[in-house]
Amino acid sequence: MSALKHEHIYKSVWRQPEDVDRWLRERCDGRTLNVCCGESPLGDVQVDADSDRNPDIQADMNKLPFKDATFDTVVFDPPWKMGYYKRQTPFFEAVRVTKPGGKILMNALWVAESENTRITDTVVRADDEWSNISAIVEHTKQPGQTTL
């Protein structure tokens, strides 16, 4: 486990700091989906429920409008104030649309799990000494797994 130290000022609550975007971009392989994209520039396809953020596709993170195993990488930064029992559904959707051998890069206050993924890296991050601490967890979808 490693840590990212940030020396920046947020420009918008809907965008990751540039150093976090850079770290994520370095780990994106192939066709990339960014779920709950906000104003993040990452990904070939950007999805958000908020049309004011100008995503490529306005959609619900709980019902992504893509076929199974469509993307090589999924960047996923869900709302941090989700109810405990609602957290796994959008993560399972990210797993569903990821190709076997592909990655899910999830930034959240909790660590999601699936029998069809393995955690391959974890980075703990905080934007400053007074902010929440989150974890960016890299999951790799197991080869041969096409569904949840």
Give me the number of helical elements. Answer: 2
Strand coverage percent: 25-35%
The backbone outline, from C-alpha atoms, is globular
Widest β-sheet, arrangement of strands: 1-7-8-6-5-2-3-4
Kindly report the CATH topology.
Rossmann fold
Helix content: 10-25%
Unreliable stretches: 1-12
Rg, Å, rounded: 14 Å
Summary?
By secondary structure, the protein is an alpha/beta fold.
Q: What does this 3D model show about the protein?
A:
The structure is a single chain. This protein is α/β, with parallel strands linked by helices and 148 residues long. It has a single domain (2-141), classed as 3-Layer(aba) Sandwich (Rossmann fold). 14% of the residues lie in helices and 33% in strands. It contains two helices and eight strands, in the order E-H-E-E-E-E-H-E-E-E. It has helices at residues 18-27, 88-97; strands at residues 2-5, 32-35, 45-48, 57-58, 71-76, 98-108, 117-126, 134-141. An eight-stranded mixed β-sheet has the order 1-7-8-6-5-2-3-4. Strand 5, helix 2 and strand 6 (98-108) form a beta-alpha-beta unit. Residues 1-12 have low confidence and may be disordered.
